[in-house]
Amino acid sequence: MKSGVSRRDFLKLAGAFPVGMAASQLSRQMNIKQLDGKKNVIIVVVDALSAYNMSLYGYGRDTTPVINKLAERAVVYHNHYASSNYTSPGTASILTGALPWTHRAQQPNSKVIPQFRDKSVFSLFDDYHRMAYSHNEWVNTLFEAFKKDIDEWVPRLQLCLYSSDAVIQKFFGNDKDISSVSWARNAKVNEEGYAYSLFLSQVLSYFEEREFAGYKSEFPRGLPTSNTDNGFLLEHAVDWLADRVINLDEPAFGYFQTTKYPGC
């Protein structure tokens, strides 16, 4: 008798099966509390690459040889749906259930229109402890719009490694954009090998080398960052969030989104 499961369906299930098994095993090992018959709801968002617009898709020129090599051992999705192709509109759609031309968060680092400020996924879990965290600044901009429905918004820098950028944002919190740019131009040696200030650049280089010396063997090309000076280890954030959920005395709804740069 002919099976009702197509090859495409099988590949989709094959990709989801390890995740489901891992989540089930993790839940048992962590002994996560289930209170009042309500289960914890945890959403973890990671960036993914698709076969669209890449040499995987059939370009004559081999434009992505490294990704091609990775794809030989990966599940490749040729048929998928996304509301947008970058962080702000795509994340806003996940959080609101609306398409970009409806929630209007279409520009980089933009917010949804006021009509959606009280219509996020967080508002559906008002009897849960609602948590939110992301290394990505643009995602945190969206959290800002929904903060009245978030019980615990973990500050982005809390789960990053200590950095000069964190110091600047601490002392110049109301002007963090211009202060961070000014600091980077004056003290951060850029790809061309120079900075505005010869003295501050040397101080910063010494600080960074001392602070991150223990990570060089594992990250010879530098620590993952969220496109700033704020390096982080993804496992630190995962471990902290897991411990936090375990110790809650009420069911939790958590939305956690990683930044894309560790995967680039």
The CATH superfamily title of the largest domain: Alkaline Phosphatase, subunit A
- Major β-sheet profile: 4 strands, parallel
**Total of helices:** 9
Which stretches are poorly predicted, pLDDT < 50 over at least 5 residues? Answer: none
Briefly note the CATH topology name of the largest domain: Alkaline Phosphatase, subunit A
Amino- and carboxy-terminal Cα gap:
45 Å
Strand content: 5-15%
Gyration radius, in Å: 21 Å
CATH architecture descriptor of the largest domain: 3-Layer(aba) Sandwich
How many domain units? 2
Cα shape: globular
Write the layout of secondary structure elements.
Blueprint: H1 7-30, E1 41-45, H2 65-71, H3 87-96, H4 100-103, E2 129-134, H5 137-145, E3 152-153, H6 164-171, H7 176-187, H8 198-211, H9 234-246, E4 252-257
Parallel strand pairs: 1-4, 2-3, 2-4
Helix pairs in contact: 6-7
What is this structure, in a nutshell?
The chain has 264 residues and is an alpha/beta fold.
Structure description:
This protein has 264 residues and is an alpha/beta fold. It has 9 helices and 4 strands. It has 2 domains: 40-158 and 232-263, Alkaline Phosphatase, subunit A; 162-211, no CATH class. 38% of the residues lie in helices and 7% in strands. Strands 1-4-2-3 form a 4-stranded parallel β-sheet, covered by helices on one side. β2 (129-134), α5 and β3 form a beta-alpha-beta unit. The mean pLDDT is 77.
